[in-house]
Write a structure and sequence with these properties.
The protein has about 260 residues and is α+β, with helices and mostly antiparallel strands. It folds into two domains: about 140 residues, Fructose-1,6-Bisphosphatase, subunit A, domain 1 (Fructose-1,6-Bisphosphatase, Chain A, domain 1, 2-Layer Sandwich), CATH 3.30.540.10; about 110 residues, D-Maltodextrin-Binding Protein, domain 2 (3-Layer(aba) Sandwich), CATH 3.40.190.80. About 35% of the residues lie in helices and about 25% in strands. It has seven helices and twelve strands. The strands form two sheets. It has a seven-stranded mixed sheet, with helices on both faces. A five-stranded mixed sheet has the order 9-8-10-12-11, with helices on both faces. A hairpin with a 7-residue loop joins β3 and β4. α1 runs antiparallel to α2 and α5 packs parallel to α6. The model has no long low-confidence stretch (mean pLDDT about 95).
């Protein structure tokens, strides 16, 4: 797994360089939606070139990919830019998210890396080996009650449920940042206390690395996938996620949402 982390780090920084060179070339020439597609494609191409150059054979799950994607193990899960809308508008909250799995479920995740595209902080994780930001080990926060919680929640009709609104109205701060990978990184490092996305629309590359990061940092993660008993990485989408630094808050959210 040490080899996986080294590989993911090298790949991520090559993607980083390509993202920012593309942004500098085209940032003033295209509207944000078109620029976002260019940035995603540029990062995916950098990852593809890295794998070809190094002769690495992985199955691929990715939002963007320049060739046919095949599902085989080991599996490389790539979100070229998580938070593309933020990045294309120059909002400083987006990331590159990479993970490796050796089986077709979340328990098969063995390594992950998230690179903050603005701060260049590297969050990385090995199954059974802990979670880190740059060279320092990280752990989740341990809030004592609702009034202490700093929660990121995806705001749409999925949270318009009276008991959930009542619960969230009692936490200290609510935020929605727009990069699930980076939000899970902040949770793992004690900066956030929970991340909630109830839409059932997340895809595995949106949160794979962050899921393992939170678990290894001592947090709790509930995941539900539509149409699947357990989880299936090959199905890619349909995920709901509730991640928390504390088991008691996770239990409260599960109770009020009926999940």
């Amino acid at each position: 797994m040490d080899d996986y982390i080294g590989m993911l780090r090298e790949m991520a920084f090559e993607m980083y360089d390509e993202v920012w060179s593309t942004f500098e070339r085209y940032g003033n020439k295209y509207p944000p939606s078109d620029l976002g597609r260019l940035l995603d494609n540029a990062a995916a191409m950098a990852a593809y070139r890295y794998l070809m150059r190094e002769g690495l054979d992985f199955g691929i799950i990715s939002e963007e990919w320049p060739s046919e994607r095949r599902f085989s193990l080991p599996l490389l899960i790539i979100d070229p830019v998580d938070g593309t809308n933020n990045l294309s508008r120059g909002i400083g909250f987006s990331s590159i998210s990479l993970a490796v799995a050796l089986d077709n479920n979340l328990d098969g995740l063995v390594a992950g890396l998230i690179l903050d595209l603005f701060s260049k902080d590297v969050y990385w994780v090995k199954r059974g080996g802990g979670a880190f930001r740059n060279n320092s080990r990280i752990h989740v926060n341990h809030p004592s009650g609702l009034k202490d919680l700093f929660v990121s929640v995806v705001i749409d009709r999925s949270i318009i449920r009276d008991p959930l609104i009542d619960l969230l109205s009692r936490v200290k701060v609510l935020r929605f940042f727009g990069s699930s990978a980076l939000e899970l990184s902040l949770l793992a490092s004690g900066r956030l206390d929970a991340f909630i996305d109830l839409r059932g629309k997340l895809r595995i590359f949106d949160f794979a690395a962050g899921y393992l990061l939170v678990k290894e940092a001592g947090g709790y993660v509930y995941v539900l996938q539509k149409g699947v008993e357990g989880t299936s990485l090959s199905k890619v989408g349909g995920f709901t996620i509730i991640a928390s630094s504390s088991d008691w808050f996770l239990e409260k959210v599960l109770n009020v949402t009926g999940l």
